[in-house]
Design a protein that fits this description.
338 residues, alpha/beta, Nucleotidyltransferase, domain 5, 10 helices, 44% helix
């Protein structure tokens, strides 16, 4: 089954062709990073306009690279939530028009489900059930993936996502957008015990997380140093910050593994590219006797391959939409009625 998949939830326009949920025939991405770097972050209106300019040509490019004609497409998949609402709308409306024109099924895919499904591409033998740590710019959660379309959220951040904090701290330190990637590179040169930064333990759910206090403490630390003329060890601060985020994530994931009894742990989302988190997850899982599935860096960020992978299983579960499909800025991964 050849699925034409569309992703436009933030600042990457992506179109892929995925066969049977596991084989990527092509994945074309038009990045807007250089444009948004001027402003230090994503400007939603600009992102939406750039999606409009790129998406049609990108779809034709994807088909051409896959060696397919439009008639060879069996279904159309699109990210319908969550994301920047204008950006998501561009993808949804384009996907609806393609599905209507080709008279093919339209498959709505939740963006975070797509991130989890990136592991199906990287690891063709991976099958549920397994535990997944989702860490991205807008979401941080521990998910019990019971089946391809049946999931339970065991814990989530109660405020900021880990990725948002990485980008914010990186921006305040004067690093280029996206700040999280630059911060990770700088952290590799520093001492992760240089500065004592807080680790929150919020609420009664042992799997819930909080990053707002860590972000605020780090920003206040930077501003105070600037005000009194104190020189900061920037690599040490970045390393200490990465360590604090990892110390918030990894123990909770290991506890969740113990509760579920799973021996398979996947990681998904843009922050899954962070070297400290990858290293600590691997070390902790090894001591626990669990197998870890870490997608390659190319599948950590937003892409359309992951949407096509999840779409295959949504289709098998009967989750298809009609021309009334709408876009949503926020929506749970648990799959409420569309």
């Amino acid at each position: 089954m050849n699925i034409l998949a569309i992703e436009s939830s933030c600042d990457e326009t992506a179109v892929a062709v995925v066969k049977d949920g596991r084989q990527v025939l092509t994945d074309c991405i038009a990045s807007q990073v250089d444009l948004h770097r001027i402003y230090g972050g994503v400007v939603p209106e600009i992102a939406s306009r750039m999606h409009i300019e790129a998406i049609y040509g990108l779809a034709d490019q994807a088909l051409k690279k896959a060696g397919l004609q439009r008639g060879d497409i069996d279904a159309v998949a699109v990210t319908y939530a969550p994301g920047l609402i204008g950006a998501v709308l561009v993808g949804v409306n384009f996907g609806k028009s393609v599905a209507l024109a080709l008279d093919k099924p339209l498959i709505p895919v939740h963006h975070i489900r797509g991130h989890i499904a990136a592991n199906y591409i990287a690891y063709p033998d991976l099958k549920p059930p397994f535990l997944c740590l989702v860490v991205s710019g807008g979401h941080t959660m521990i998910v019990d993936v019971q089946d391809y379309t049946k999931m339970e959220i065991l814990g989530t951040t109660l405020d900021d996502a880990a990725g948002e904090c990485f980008d914010k701290v990186g921006r305040v330190l004067g690093m280029p957008y996206p700040g999280g990637a630059a911060l990770d590179r700088t952290a590799s040169l520093g001492d992760d015990h240089k500065y004592d930064l807080p680790r929150a333990k919020p609420g009664v759910n042992p799997y819930d997380m909080s990053f707002s206090g860590l972000k605020t403490a780090t920003l206040n630390f930077i501003h105070h140093a600037e005000q009194v003329g104190e020189e900061l060890d920037i690599p040490g601060l970045c390393a200490s910050f990465c360590c604090a985020v990892s110390d918030t994530l990894v123990p909770r994931v290991m506890q969740a593994l113990e509760q579920t009894g799973y021996k398979k742990l996947a990681v998904a989302g843009g922050v899954a590219a962070n070297s400290r988190i990858r290293k600590n997850i691997l070390a902790a899982a090894e001591s626990f006797g669990a197998e870890v599935f870490l997608p390659p860096l190319s599948l950590c960020g937003d892409n359309a391959s992951m949407i096509g992978a999840q779409a295959y299983y949504e289709y098998l579960a009967g989750n298809v939409a009609d021309m009334h499909l709408n876009a949503y800025a926020t929506k749970s991964i648990l799959g409420e009625t569309i």
